């Protein structure tokens, strides 16, 4: 913990003791004071107490792109998790500052792959296959360092929305695909594309082992990572709901396990989930397997449908939830009173350069 973190923690104690109404009023005032120069963006999984101030709500890539396009906004407050703020910094220009309200809001999935581990994995895979035969692909939910590694090796970033098209393209180009860090997304999309289980292998970064189902048939090497939020959905929860409501439809995010996806009616990105509910008939019952903050917002947005939580006792993403009203209020006050204490996200030039290549490769293919 550095000196700024210690100061921030000490100040936060005061903010947690304050009345939320005061903070809401202050945030509004400071936002008005800066006008178009300041932009607040919030990921779909943020709490309503944050979303109420957002100029844009969306997935991580969309928010980074909106921020990058809005050149008038010189200060971007990114309410999400670290890798998202990094992506925003990579895509915005040097005149824009990406400010992140809580430096401890990481992402457990992104943290499952680091530079040291990927370098070791790549060495292993290069010895086993020829490196020119392997296309590295990283989910956007990965650190800037991982995106950079992938960009340096002519790879590509994917989102849950475009993973299908890009993996389909990559299968026609590479003998082997190395997909990280979310094994569930990689597995679900590959199987949807007709890739057999036998062709899927799993790289275990902690034990540095490659687990192959059939070495002769390996095509896609998945990284042994997962999202702790989406991993908690189970087939049993789906069966229980189907017993209670035989007409229910179940839609889940592709970060869920393959067993859960198979037991569901649909799998889709956040945009697909919103679209699915939007298109469903009024009165229909739909259970959604993704972050509960988002599902609860969708219940209100589509109050004429019966939108349900697939797992009502699940926690929403605890890392996303680290950004709350006190953290935002402190950040807004710092803009005026203590700009030197703002947590500004800055990806170094080399990492940014190669990460941008991987992101641009994705944009060319989407
Ligand atoms: S929901 Fe999962 S992938 Fe998204 S930020 Fe939380 S831990 Fe990371």
UniProtKB/TrEMBL annotation:
Any idea what job this protein has?
Catalyzes the condensation of iminoaspartate with dihydroxyacetone phosphate to form quinolinate.
Question: Which pathway does the database say it acts in?
Answer: Cofactor biosynthesis; NAD(+) biosynthesis; quinolinate from iminoaspartate: step 1/1
Q: Which reaction does it catalyse?
A: iminosuccinate + dihydroxyacetone phosphate = quinolinate + phosphate + 2 H2O + H(+)
Enzyme class name: transferase
The entry marks the following residues as binding [4Fe-4S] cluster, namely 107, 227, 317
Could you say which cofactors this protein requires?
[4Fe-4S] cluster
List locations, semicolon-separated: Cytoplasm
Question: What is the UniProt remark on how the cofactor binds and its stoichiometry?
Answer: Binds 1 [4Fe-4S] cluster per subunit.
EC code: 2.5.1.72
Keywords in UniProt for this one? 4Fe-4S, Cytoplasm, Iron, Iron-sulfur, Metal-binding, Pyridine nucleotide biosynthesis, Transferase
Give GO BP annotations, semicolon-separated: 'de novo' NAD+ biosynthetic process from L-aspartate
Q: Which gene encodes it?
A: nadA
Q: Where does iminosuccinate bind?
A: 43, 60, 139-141, 160, 253-255, 270
Organism lineage string: Bacteria, Bacillati, Bacillota, Bacilli, Lactobacillales
Can you say what this protein is called? Quinolinate synthase
């Amino acid at each position: 913990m550095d000196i700024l973190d210690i100061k921030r923690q000490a100040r936060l104690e005061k903010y947690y003791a304050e009345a939320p109404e005061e903070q809401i009023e202050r945030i509004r005032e400071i936002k008005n004071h800066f006008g178009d120069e300041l932009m607040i963006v919030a990921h779909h999984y943020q709490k309503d107490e944050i979303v109420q101030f957002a100029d844009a709500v969306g997935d991580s890539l969309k928010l980074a792109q909106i921020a990058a396009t809005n050149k008038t906004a010189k200060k971007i407050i990114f309410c999400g998790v670290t890798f998202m703020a990094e992506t925003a910094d990579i895509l915005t220009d040097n005149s824009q500052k990406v400010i992140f309200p809580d430096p401890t809001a990481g992402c457990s999935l992104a943290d499952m792959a680091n530079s040291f581990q990927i370098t070791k994995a790549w060495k292993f895979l290069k010895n086993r296959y020829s490196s020119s035969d392997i296309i590295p692909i990283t989910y956007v939910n990965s650190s800037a360092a991982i995106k950079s590694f992938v960009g340096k090796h002519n790879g590509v970033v994917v989102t849950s929305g475009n993973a299908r098209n890009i993996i389909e393209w990559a299968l026609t180009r590479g003998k082997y695909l190395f997909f990280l860090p979310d094994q569930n997304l990689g597995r679900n999309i590959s199987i949807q594309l007709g890739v057999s289980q036998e062709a899927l292998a799993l790289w275990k970064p902690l034990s540095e082992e490659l687990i192959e189902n059939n070495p002769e048939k390996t095509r896609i090497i998945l990284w042994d990572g997962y999202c702790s939020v989406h991993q908690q959905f189970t087939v049993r929860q789906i069966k229980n709901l189907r017993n209670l409501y035989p007409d229910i439809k179940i839609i889940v995010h592709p970060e869920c396990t393959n067993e859960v996806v198979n037991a569901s009616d649909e799998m889709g990105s956040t945009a697909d989930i919103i679209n699915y509910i939007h298109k469903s008939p009024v009165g229909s019952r739909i259970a959604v397997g993704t972050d509960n903050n988002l599902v609860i917002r969708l219940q209100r947005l589509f109050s004429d449908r019966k939108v349900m939580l697939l797992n009502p006792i699940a926690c929403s993403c605890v890392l996303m939830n680290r950004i709350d009203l006190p953290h935002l209020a402190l950040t807004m006050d710092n803009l005026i009173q203590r700009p030197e204490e703002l947590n500004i996200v800055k990806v170094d030039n080399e990492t940014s350069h190669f990460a941008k290549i991987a992101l641009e490769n994705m944009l060319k293919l989407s």
